[in-house]
Fold each of these.
Amino acid sequence: MVARTIPVAPFDLVVFGATGDLVRRRLLPALYMRWRAGQMPPTARVVGVARGVPGAAAETPAADAFRDFARRALEEFAPAADEIDADFLARLDFAAMDVRDAAAWSSLGARLGEAGSRVRAFYLSVAPELFGVIGGALAANGLADGGARIVVEKPLGHDRASAGAVNDSLRAGFEESQIYRIDHYLGKETVQNLMVLRFANALLEPLWSARSIDHVQISVAETVGLEGRDYYEGTGALRDMVQNHLLQLLCLTAMEPPARFEADAIRDEKRKVIQALAPIAGAATATETARGQYAGYREDAGNLESRTETFAALRAEVRNARWSGTPFYLRTGKRLARRVSEVAVVFRDVPHSIFGEERHSDLRGNALIMRLQPDEAITLRMTIKEPGPGGLRLTEVPLDMTFAEALGPEVAMPDAYERLLMDVIRGNQTLFMRYDELDAAWSWIDPILAGWEGAPPLYEPGSEGPGEADALLSRDGRRWRRLTE
Ligand code: BG6
């Protein structure tokens, strides 16, 4: 089965902060992959904006220096890149400018195609303090018409109030329908598959509630530590990962079926899930959450007093008719035993085991595991008879729906940014966050942050995380799936 590629309309994509890490590691490789797949039209243009290209010789024209920067980025980060296609590099341009300098903006306008003749998208890969400056200048210079899109990425604030202020600065120049808030987890294949699996298979829906589901575990574990993430100290795992990525995974797992597969219908349902979360505040933060910091983090961060958590775990309850009685356990952390992201839906045990008590204890029940990474896969854990004569023993086997095997080796899994960037050009907001979702998420997160006191306990790098996280589940008679399982 070969993936179909439908070319998008011609576009001008202007990337502010074009020499930053995100552009080098994710955006340029994603655009290049779409170019190679034939989805990016030959007339599309990508205009980088930054003060200059680091390391470029003064006499080199800025556009050439940027193309060279892009070529090196692609050689390093684009999958299976050999000789970089010069035709792609020719689609890149660069405006060396200080966005705060009002006089510099006319030169940017001159680089874009005629307004209205092609899709215009502005990607703000810059600090949120600059959103207002850039949005205002785009409007003042007539660069953003009603069809223009603006793309932003977290951090969109560090609490509810600051997220509101960031949003106000965006809304000063753009309508909500023009704003694309990226949560790159929504662009991952398995995450979209979660919706298809739930809503296109009659098999699961009757089981998808507290009646059949014992609990859900959502884990995003990384082996990397700080690795140059300068913003991390003072941000921490709760803001960096839970407020967005993990809550979005929870929403897609728990939401009611929307009437249509449409951006607003889906985002309405996701917001309702966040609003149904039982608040965790005050003393409850000690019983319903756990934090940790990997040993050595303080040295990595250059702050020996740091209280920033590099691990967070929570026990969340969705208080509605479908989920009352089924906890959602979330955990995420850096420098853990293994890189693995998954949603594990663990079903209740059979009400009565005919195999007797001893065997019953072997029955670990059914579980649907949706793995986002490292290898995208969906497996259903089943209990079967262990083959062979002599007694009857039960064993667990995974019913494997690994995509690569089922769909054929030629179906490559695209990076999340490939899909998201093309969705921006298409004008499809389904996989982007609406402001009310973000606002609801911060409203739930803020009291947890406020309830945390003192320094988080340390955990060993390469471990499963702090013991406090285990206690969160063992109190309920459950345990985390081991990361190394
Ligand atoms: C980012 C976080 O949003 O997601 C990083 O800011 C984290 O701290 C990254 O490392 C993980 O993304 P992925 O796609 O590698 O799971």
Amino acid sequence: MAASAPPERRPITDLHGVGPRQAERLGRLGVTTVADLLFHLPLRYQDRTRVLPLGSLRPGDEAVIEAEVVQAGTHDGRRRSLLARVADGTGWLTLRWFYFGPGLQRSLVPGARGRWFGEVRTGPTGLEMVHPEAMKEGEGDALTPIYPATEGLTQPALRTLMERALPAAAELADPLAGEGDDLPELATALQTIHRPPPEADTEALLEGTHPARRRLAFEELVARQIGLRRLRAAAGAHAAPPLAPTGRLTNALLASLPFNLTAAQERVAAEIRADLGEAHPMQRLVQGDVGSGKTVVAALAALQAVEAGWQVAVMAPTEILAEQHRASFQAWCEPLGLEVAWLSGRDRGDSRRAAAEAVASGRAAIAVGTHALFQEGMAFHDLGLVIIDEQHRFGVHQRLALREKGGGEGRWPHQLIMTATPIPRTLAQSAYADLDVSVIDERPPGRTPVETVAVPDSRRPEVVERVGRACAEGRQAYWVCTLIEESEASAAQAAEQTAAELGEALPTLHVGLVHGRLRPEEKEAVMAAFKAGELDLLVATTVIEVGVDVPNASLMIIENPERLGLAQLHQLRGRVGRGSAKSSCVLLYHGPLSENAGQRLAVMRESDDGFTIARHDLALRGSGEVLGTRQTGVAGLRAADLQRDADLLPAVQQRADALLERPEAAEVLERRWLPEGERYAAV
Ligand code: ADP
Ligand code: MG
């Protein structure tokens, strides 16, 4: 590759084999230059280094096998398939293909030897691998990277492209080079990450603690730190409308609530109250475990702004969650004579126009919605406060877009951000270096902890019966389906099938279904019916993970919980235990469990506290198992993990300080690691 331009400016089509179609697919992954590709990091690795004897295989194992074909042929079942029985002296296994060509068929003659990689599962006649990958000579000497992929772009294709791009790593700008760290050079680090050499420390790579990974994590954290500091400085220099509290509306709300605030809610509400009175924009993050009562704290902030004569926008990342806030804010604020406007992504036409008009004219004091709130054409009359729930689902840049809508006369609205992501305070300050942090570290009284049990799926019929009994007693239940490769389509299919089966097994129950493939209005209708008690049982994918509040739902079944990480399990379980009824959660696992999965389920049985669970999560992470990928990322980090890499943070702070004095170097890092919207935000 003739080094014409640096990789940062070399288009991806410069690589051999990348035409317009491939470039379009890469573009979907955010890859447009050779440098982008080099920073397209593996999500995880597969360990194909160890060949397992057939006799030792168990369902669920991902394994490399080396065996001899004993017998092969096609089979006309419901779908025609090609079957090969293979053996290695310790046992035998069936390989199965539904799609196959004559070449493959010819190669599978009795006596032929081969090496295959695949997932072991139970088939009609014993253990089998469906569509095993035939392994090439030399492959499997080292870990195999698995990349974020997209339709039409396979893992082998990505690996080949990476191979072609890697020589360019040496030409990347490296602003952190040679400043005496004991971490490897950038190019070496990338080489190791994308093409782990056989002698590399496998364990460390799988766990994300390898120096190569830490080198990239360090860069990313420095970039993030620089970006956030610039944001904070910009906000501090800006004006915001001071929102003096009169207590007229907030006191009325407090008087109308059927409960008293907890001490933690009081404290956080006071911190917010003080911030809002300032002439600079509040930038505060409220962190509180699921069920800690963040919404009412947000409502108090909203009413203070309204008292002072300003509007409030309340934004949530999903329709379901936004709808939840609409219900709360309407219930609390309409009796006080306020109009609450509703702006969702799906509403078009008259209702949308009416809502937008109420907001633009200033008649609606509070606007609740999804990202529709900051879309083109939305104008606020006098926006003084923006409240954002579950911020990690939004990029920083979306938060900034809403800021543009407000304040008037060049002023910015105040911002209140709420998250349930339990990260320790010191880390929060680093993750959200542009924010002040308040923590609601106490739960409302009278909650009985959710009783959690783990039950093997061989006892599924008992669990189904239990659901039937609970619903007969007037309780409501969730049944959550999980999948490993969470494509929306396959998750939806699994949930549909489960809903059909449960409907058949429990014919007297009203069973609803939500998954990510439904249209928003369908999703919402199902949720509304569940909330209204018209449905007894809600079968769902993990789309219900965030924020849904149905106090009467007191039983949750999570299928295949061993596939989820602790953080996600905790979020899911937080959907029950919200009312006064005793709640339970059944972790319906598929055995045999790996040691790590067993420990995760044990933590879930024993603890109900987000911080405790987060600590265990850290200790149990990264065993190389397939976990949901989302749980690993706080604030959308790509290489770093704030908990795992916490020890880097002091050095990150120092380096960020130094780099702020070198704008060109800082810019290289910001371009590399921060999404576009965040980069220009501070200027
Ligand atoms: P989260 O922090 O997960 O958003 P919510 O704000 O949805 O929690 O609150 C969970 C439930 O607890 C709601 O039904 C809410 O009305 C109730 N709640 C909030 N604060 C208190 C309190 N101090 N005492 C009793 N119940 C409360
Ligand atoms: Mg909430």
